[in-house]
Amino acid sequence: MQIATFNVNGIKARIETVLDWLDREQPDVALLQEIKSVDEAFPRAPFEDRGYNLETHGQKGFNGVAILSKLPLEDVTRGLPGDPDDEQARWIEATVIGAQAIRICGLYLPNGNPAPGPKYDYKLGWMARLEAHARDLMASEDPVLMAGDYNIIPQDEDAARPEAWAKDALALPASREAFRRIVHLGFTEAFRARTRGTGHYSFWDYQAGAWDRNDGIRIDHVLLSPQAADLMTDCRIEAEMRGREKPSDHVPVWVTLDA
DNA sequence: ATGTCGGCATTGTGCCGA
User: Fold this and answer.
1) Nearest nucleotide (C1') to the CA of residue A113?
2) What does pTM read for this prediction?
3) Kindly report the CA angle at A122 between A63 and A131, in degrees rounded to 5?
4) Do A29 and A96 form a contact (C-beta atoms < 8 A)?
5) What is the spatial distance, in angstroms and rounded to an integer, between the CA atom of A35 and the C1' atom of B11?
6) Nearest nucleotide, CA A7 to C1'
7) Are A126 and A87 contacting, i.e. CB atoms less than 8 angstroms apart?
8) pLDDT tens per residue, chain A (259 residues)?
9) Residue A27, CA distances (Å) to A7, A51, A138, A257 in order
10) Mind telling me the catalytic residues of A?
């Protein structure tokens, strides 16, 4: 089973890019972030015509997540538990029914800039809720995958110019600590389980020729519970997508599971 | 630090978020 996470930066602006990608790469499951669309305005038809089941959790203008799946989806839930007053659309989860059932979670973690400030407080609060929910998911002992735009640079090696991000919400010590607390519940960070070293990025700013200079950061991650990690046979970043026509500022990250 | 982009409110362009 091939699963990809992809921050598309606006589904309406990116529709041709995303459809070309689906036709070429044929993921079984795709988790999309920053759809920037309400559910009623999401262009469902071209995805359903290609045989994808589609579940969205959108809002007007910002944020928004979606799950595409060629396999059946069951028990879909929307919104990260822990704060009924949180109106930002950043979490969706569903069970994908393949050779074995996998709980798949798509997330768009808050950016948090500027830090310090209320946006950073919201980020850390959201991560505390994520930790609590991840603990519950881990306790299920089912195969669980949590993937998306984490807006976290886990280590200095995950940035071309770490010094430029030292005071940014994506790399501050408190951000990294919150990410590690989640990983340390027992999750495997899929990419780093297979690839070491510098130079591996999933985001390049649109500004200042960041792609041309390979001035990137790695902020899109896949976390696997032990039961899911045991199924992983590959994980890769599709960096070449950043050089295509009308790219998102993020590229897809893929995992292959023997399921 | 800022060389860009998407969406919104809104009809020409400035603001916000990233």
Assistant:
1) B18
2) 0.98
3) 90
4) yes
5) 26
6) B18
7) no
8) 999 999 999 999 999 999 999 999 999 999 999 999 999 999 999 999 999 999 999 999 999 999 999 999 999 999 999 999 999 999 999 999 999 999 999 999 999 999 999 999 999 999 999 999 999 999 999 999 999 999 999 999 999 999 999 999 999 999 999 999 999 999 999 999 999 999 999 999 999 999 999 999 999 999 999 999 999 999 999 999 999 999 999 999 999 999 9
9) 15, 11, 25, 12
10) 108, 149
For the CA of A252 and the C1' of B13, the distance in angstroms is: 34
| Strand B–CB A62 distance below 7 A | yes
Structure tokens at A111: 């950016």
Nucleotides of B under 7 A from a protein CB: 1-9, 17-18
How many other CB atoms are found less than 10 A from the CB of residue A9?
A: 18
* Protein chain A, residues 206-245, with a C-beta closer than 7 Å to any atom of nucleic acid strand B: 206-209
Strand A2-7 with A29-33, pairing: parallel
Nucleotide nearest to A13 (CA to C1'): B6
Residue closest to sugar C1' of B8 by CA: A61
Beta sheet of A253-257, edge-to-edge order: A53-57, A65-69, A29-33, A2-7, A253-257, A232-237
Q: Is the CB of A167 under 7 A from strand B?
A: no
Owner of token pair 């500004």: A207
